[in-house]
Amino acid sequence: MASPSDDEANALERHTARQRESEHRVKNTLQLISSIVMLQGRRVSDDDVRQALKAVQSRVAAVSVAHRHVAWSEDAEEAELAALVREIVGDLAGSAGREGVDIDLDLESVTIPGRNAAPMALIVSEAVGNALRHAYPDGRNGRIRVALRRIGEGFELSVADDGVGVDDGTGDRAPTPAFGLTVAQLMAQQVRGRLQTGGVPGQPGVRIAVTVTMDSTAPRA
Predict the structure, then answer these.
(1) Residue 134 pLDDT > 70, yes or no?
(2) Taking residues 127-142, what's their average pLDDT?
(3) Cα(67)–Cα(195) distance, rounded to whole angstroms?
(4) Can you tell me the mean pLDDT for 164-179?
(5) Sheet strands side by side (includes 76-80)
(6) Which of 119, 137, 142, 210 could form a disulfide with 187 if both were Cys (CB 3.0 to 4.6 A apart)?
(7) 173 near 206, Cβ under 8 Å?
(8) Nearest one of 121, 144, 139 to 66, comparing CA atoms
(9) pLDDT for 146-165, tens place per residue?
(10) What is the pTM of this model?
(11) So what's the pLDDT on residue 115?
C-alpha cells in the first residue's frame, strides 16, 4: 500500500507532466500562428499590409518569449522581467537590421507574476518596435535606452529614443503609432499599471514608461 508521501509525490509528478505537455502545446500553437502570418505576409503586395502582418508576427513572438520565461517557484508562476526584456529587445534588434541604431539596456532584477509576463512582453515589443520603425527615418542613426528599475513597492519599465519624435502637425516627424500605443495601453491596464508617453527631457525623441506596483498585480476580484 502506498504511503501518503508516495501519493503526494506521484500526484506532483503527474501535475508536472501535464504542465509540460500543456507548455508544449502552447509553444506549437504560437509557432503555427507565426508561420501562418509569415506566409500570408509573403503573398501580399501592399507594403502597409505587409508591415501590419510583420507587426502581428512580432507580437506573437513576444508572447512566445514570455511563455518560455514563466517558471514555477514554490507554489506560484513567476518570470524574471529583466531576462524577458533582454531577449525580446535582442530579437527585435536582430530582425530590424538597423546597424546605426544602438540599444542600451539598464535592467535591474525584477520578478513578476507569471500571468503578467505576456502583457509586459507586449509593452516592450510595442515600445521598442515602434522606436526602431518610426524614430529614425531615412537611415538616421540614433540610440534607444531601455531601463528597468525598482521603485518603492513596484517597478518602472521605460523605453526612450533620441529620434524625430511624433507628428506635431508640421509634417517633419514620424506619424504617431496609434495602434501600437493602444496595445501598450491595454496591456498596462491588464497589469494595473500606469502608462506614460511624452518627450525626453532636454533632447528630441519619445519616452514610453509603464509603472507597476507589486500589490497591483493581484488578481482582479
Answers:
(1) yes
(2) 90
(3) 23
(4) 60
(5) 70-73, 76-80, 111-113
(6) 119
(7) no
(8) 121
(9) 999 999 889 999 999 999 88
(10) 0.79
(11) 92
Residues 6+ apart with CB under 8 A from 38: 53, 57
CA 82, CA 90: separation in Å to the nearest integer? 12
**Residues in the chain, overall count:** 221
Q: How many CB atoms lie within 10 A of CB 140?
A: 13
Q: What is the DSSP letter of 117?
A: H
Residue 57 has a pLDDT of 83
What is the pLDDT at residue 18? Answer: 63
Euclidean distance between CA atoms 156 and 149, whole angstroms: 6
First and final C-alpha spacing in the chain:
43
User: For strand 76-80 and strand 154-161, is the pairing parallel, antiparallel, or unpaired?
Assistant: unpaired
Q: Where are the alpha helices (DSSP H) in 150-217?
A: 178-190
C-alpha cell at 216: 497591483
For residue 21, give the C-alpha cell: 505537455
